[in-house]
């Protein structure tokens, strides 16, 4: 039996649907700073949060080598994540779409052929997005190379993928790249 120790903080916030992109970016930075401060028990502000050339958030200062951040938004929700491990978070609102066809475009050969429902598709989709964010959306270069459904021992780079409870009509997943996974019998 494998016991994986996960260390992270997650904050979820709802917001008014009329929020424009610049305001949403500011709200995201504020939520990231709040999440990072709660995780580290240190005072952090929006000024401590930056984004790299790929848009991935990170902290500046003394915590920068030990603090990893991720942010996602969909519909009326923002989700921020802080961890001592490279991490990714994704939330998606369920929208009617040809999910079986979309799944074929991103499906890894070892993953199931088709999701059984729209909700299952979005759960799998959030797993892919969260995992991709661990690597700043740069690795792998194609979603088809990123296995996140099926046997965990086959997951891309042995990522830890966790499906979390989400607001009604949403899917939410996180991914962590833990180098110090511990096995216990």
UniProtKB/TrEMBL annotation:
<feature type="domain" description="4'-phosphopantetheinyl transferase">
    <location>
        <begin position="86"/>
        <end position="151"/>
    </location>
</feature>
<protein>
    <recommendedName>
        <fullName>4'-phosphopantetheinyl transferase domain-containing protein</fullName>
    </recommendedName>
</protein>
<dbReference type="Pfam" id="PF01648">
    <property type="entry name" value="ACPS"/>
</dbReference>
<dbReference type="InterPro" id="IPR008278">
    <property type="entry name" value="4-PPantetheinyl_Trfase_dom"/>
</dbReference>
<keyword id="KW-0808">Transferase</keyword>
<dbReference type="InterPro" id="IPR037143">
    <property type="entry name" value="4-PPantetheinyl_Trfase_dom_sf"/>
</dbReference>
């Amino acid at each position: 039996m494998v016991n994986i120790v996960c260390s992270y903080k997650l904050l979820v916030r709802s917001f008014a649907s009329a929020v424009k992109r610049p305001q949403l970016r500011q709200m995201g930075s504020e939520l990231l700073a709040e999440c990072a401060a709660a995780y580290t028990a240190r005072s952090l502000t929006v000024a401590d949060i930056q984004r790299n050339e790929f848009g991935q958030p990170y902290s500046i200062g003394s915590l920068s080598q030990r603090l990893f951040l991720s942010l996602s938004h969909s519909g009326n929700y923002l989700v921020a994540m802080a961890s001592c491990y490279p991490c990714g978070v994704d939330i998606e609102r369920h929208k009617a779409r040809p999910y079986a066809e979309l799944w074929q475009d991103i499906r890894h050969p070892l993953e199931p052929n088709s999701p059984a429902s729209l909700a299952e598709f979005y759960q799998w989709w959030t797993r892919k997005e969260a995992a991709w964010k661990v690597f700043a959306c740069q690795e792998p270069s194609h979603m088809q190379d990123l296995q996140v459904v099926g046997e965990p021992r086959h997951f891309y780079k042995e990522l830890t993928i966790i499906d979390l409870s989400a607001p009604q009509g949403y899917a939410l997943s996180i991914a962590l790249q833990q180098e110090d996974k511990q096995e216990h019998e």
